[in-house]
Amino acid sequence: MIDLHTHTNKSDGTDSPRELVNKAISLGITLLGITDHDTTSGWAQAAETVRGSIGLALGSEISCLTNDGVSVHMLALLFNGEHKEMQIMLEETRDGRLPRMRKMIEKMRAAGIDISMDDVEAARPDGAVLGRPHLADALVNKGIIKSRDEAFQGMLNNGSAFYVSHAAPTPVDAIAMICAAGGVAVIAHPFASHRGQTLQAADFSDLVAAGLHGIEVDHRDQNPDERAMLRNIANELGLVVTGASDYHGNGKLNSLGEFQTAPDQWERLESLADQRRVVRA
């Protein structure tokens, strides 16, 4: 079982890196991708927990914006965690999250919603990269909504009146940085239309030219038709096809290992990194 896209409480998941690895071991997962948003801070604890037959594909999910303002998430896997320019890019993206959150809260308060930055901070675990899920948790804690899923289908959707974009690299720039750091780039859930505006099929040619290695096809936020279209795009462009849970612990309905990557596709993806960086016991 290969699940290449998961989150811990170092970003917007609810399990610690140690808890996530232990849970993956108990489920029989053989390769786990840990891809917290714009950070590598969970890598060390996750690596310390490895035992038995499980391997870790350490990475990060990089928040990107196209020149047209479309939000895109790029999975960076197997890159050199000590690559200076990559870490600078991740840090700059994290730094843009605080002013963005303040603007979203201002919009909500102007609409009469009783929410504050203190409420969001109370919902954010210590050391976690700030994100919309923490605002969702704060709204749940105050009884304004019932769940994170409800928030992302409405108030926090990319098309919502409360949505605010933040400073982020373009997908092309992110791919170039991932490649420079020796890793592989897989675009995450690119046709998840219920999240808001998505990429178009024609957009993938520029990403491939920049060095894109794969497309996350099998994901719960993409319906069967969207998955079929992405599989065709991947096949036409010679890209690796991946599947993953996008697990967030108790934060979302996604179950660990609910979608997976085929072993042959993983072998191909791993071979495209400049080194074999899977962490094993």
From TrEMBL:
Q: Which residues form the Polymerase/histidinol phosphatase N-terminal domain?
A: 2-66
What the entry lists under Pfam families is as follows: PHP (PF02811)
Molecular function (Gene Ontology), one example: 5'-3' DNA exonuclease activity
- Which SUPFAM superfamilies does the record match to this protein? PHP domain-like
Identify this protein by name.
Answer: Unannotated protein
Q: Which organism is it from?
A: freshwater metagenome
